[in-house]
Amino acid sequence: MLEKADNVRQAPAPTAPEAELRPPPKRGGKAKLLVLLGLVVLLGGIYYGIRARTTAEAALSQETVETAVPVVDVVSPKPDAPDLALVLPGQTSAFTDTPIYARSSGYLKKWYVDIGAQVKTGELLAEIETPELDAQLRQARADLVTAEANAKLASITANRTEDLLKSQSVSTQERDNAAGAFAADHAIVASRQAEVARLEELQSYEKIYAPFGGVITTRNTDIGDLVSAGAGTRNSELFRVQATGTLRIYVAIPEVYTPQIHIGAKPSVTLDEYPGQPFQGTLVRTDQSINQLSRTLLAEVDVDNSAGKLLPGAYTFVHFALRPNPGSVTIPSNTLLFRSEGLRVGVVRNGKVQLVPVTLGRDYGDRVEVVSGLSSKDQVIINPSDSLISGAMVKVSSSKPAGAA
């Protein structure tokens, strides 16, 4: 037991070659770990730097692309086109306007009405003295008496001759001569009666009566004036009577509006002397023909003037209400593009611009009526650029444009 312990304690020391062959103990492990860790951090920093720069460049590119797309304001067409008031100038005139002339020549004896007088049908206006006509009538009556006496004598002679012919006391020729003389004298009587009747009728024209009820607007004569019969002589118009209970207004309607003008329409009539007080009119007739020079249709509008407020010859404005075209829409005037190929409107569809041709109707000033080419669902660009082309990318503004009001 002791020997073995001694053997253990006294193990032989290794020789020199064995000591040299053993590996040296490991040193510097922590330093390598630190270097490796630093390398990883450096590579991670480089990676994240490159990635951040790439992300920033992509965001900048996206922002540049988005900035390059123009932003436009749009408005939807309105389907409720308002009624258009077609205002046309006109001039009132009396429903009946008649000049009164003398039918008998002579001197004005007396007049009973002056300008502005309201007269009734058959009212006496003036009297004329006709001395020459009176003398002619007296002579005609005397000639009639002579003709009647001659005819009476011729009748007696014819009857007597007829009786004598039965007893063969006279010849047939004498009987025929007597009958012919009676027929001639009878015709002369008829002629004299006609002449007397003519002169009596002319004498009845010594008194001038109103042909209808109205207003005396002209008096061109006075007591003692020489009056000449007929309408072609100088100063032959004695009076002028106008019936103003209803007034006529003649207006020229442009040809483009004639399909919407119908007999029986109720246009309103306004006058500057009655601001804010329209008068109701009625379209009663047209001339059914377009004037080739003015391209207008002549129409007559009658206005009730029983109150007497309106005067003939007044300047008026006639307002016709025109209905909008069926299926039409209205858009602001600042949406139109005038191109060489025609009128166009920019419409946004699927983020792109399409230049749509349109047909205009009426012009309302700040808005226009589009008869064809648009619907109420379209998005129309307001204030489009002159360089706008079809297919261009655009972005619709989220704010409400001023032109959409």
Supply the key terms.
single chain, 405 residues, alpha+beta, Helix Hairpins, conserved putative lor/sdh protein from methanococcus maripaludis s2 fold, 6-stranded antiparallel beta barrel, 35% strand, rod-shaped, disordered N terminus
Fraction in helix? 25-40%
Summed up, the helix count is 5
Structural class: alpha+beta
Query: What does the radius of gyration come to?
Result: 58 Å
- Binned strand content: 25-35%
Based on the structure given, which CATH architecture of the domain at 326-404 is correct?
A: Beta Barrel
Q: Roughly what is the average pLDDT, rounded to an integer?
A: 83
SSE series: HHHEEEEEEHHEEEEEEEEEEEEEEEE
Strand order of the largest sheet: 3-10-13-12-11-14
* Secondary structure tally: strands: 22
CATH fold node name of the domain at 326-404: conserved putative lor/sdh protein from methanococcus maripaludis s2 fold
Main β-sheet description: 6 strands, antiparallel, barrel
- Gross morphology is rod-shaped
Which CATH class of the domain at 326-404? Mainly Beta
- Give start-end ranges of low-pLDDT stretches: 1-11
Calculate the terminal CA-CA distance, rounded to whole Å: 120 Å
